[in-house]
User: What shape does this take?
Amino acid sequence: MFTVSDRSVKLARRLDPSADSSDWSDWRWQCVHAIRDISTFERMLGIRFTSDERKHLEETIAVFPLSITPYYLSLIDPNDFKNDPIFKQSFCSTQELRLSPYDMADPLAEDKDSPVPLVTHRYPDRVLFHISNVCAMYCRHCTRKRKVGDRDHIPSKAEIQKGLDYIKNTPTIRDVLLSGGDPFLLSDDYLDWILTELRKNDHVEVIRIGTRTPVVLPYRITDDLVQMLRKHHPVWINTHFNHPREITKSARTALATLADAGIPLGNQSVLLAGVNDCPRIMKVLVQKLVRNRVRPYYLYQCDLSEGLSHFRTPVGKGIEIIESLIGHTSGFCVPTYVIDAPGGGGKIPIMPNYLISWSTNKVVLRNYEGVITTYKEPDSYESIFCDRNCGDCKLQLNLAGADEQEPIGVEKLLADYNPSIALVPEDTERMSRREE
Ligand SMILES: *Cc1c(COP(=O)(O)O)cnc(C)c1O
Assistant: This one.
């Protein structure tokens, strides 16, 4: 399925003198031979750090450990490695130890929003289920950097069962997102067991898997794996390409195998200074993804996790990138740019402004070329007071299929059937005066 180059075999033999091309394309061999120390890294690429550099690098990996798959390392250009996007995502930088006062260990409050171990329940209808604590490669920009290398173990069946029970007993969950770590570092059988258990719940409509293996370990995408996955449809997969250089022949093979099994593919990129903070690079990336049947899903603003300050760009860079995509290329090439709210507020979409002004009669808009245009509002629109009495409504909502949750947030302010007129923080001085 995968073709292995002579250079890869040469690199494999630097790690394991008896290795051949079938070892290189064996995902377990890749994991066992992940590069975890500076000397092996130097030996693989034929480079040398100065003794001063080495001292600082050693200090860095003592805090934030190193692990790079031989495959991903082989994508680094040894002649210009310091500016290499693969190098920057995989090899430690001494800047990681520079903490800024705004850095947080758990900026997204994933641990706080965790009703049972391994589960983060933040949104009404979906949960994040951390079924793996293991990754093939430690991305230097990991949002869960606090945990990297921590307890590199796969949760036991008993631990997973607690999460499964929570999902079973929470019928509002219709979408389960398997995350980690990387779920694809579990064996096929273990994953099959988890998926089978999840599928016993009628309320779980969709299962999603977040994995970076197509990028850092494409050989994990075997025929056996996809044969197992397709038994559990609908299964969606989101992967994590950040730079067009990562879309190699092997990565394309892995993506095609997944897509051919009927798995819809999405991509979540992180905006990273020095890696992909460029409209041209991002346009090439999203177009290449679509060519490989991957829909760009999210572009994340880099989180406020500890050790990531050198990767952060201003939000303006992300808006500039989205400005360069909308209208300029196919609509489904454009990801939603989001900031994952510090404190656990979830993902907040950010866009350039296209709505310039409006009156009761007209809306004034601008397009990607700078054309300013108007849209005439309808003269007659019968706005119906909605009391949520859907049985009497002319719109044919099939009540059996509709959820009956209370509205929350701004949705609640817009709802006719809810008397709220304002959202007010609970603990303001003004409010406490009212209570007195
Ligand atoms: C991102 C995320 C989800 C999924 O969000 P979508 O916008 O549906 O992709 C669910 N739970 C948590 C905690 C998340 O961070």
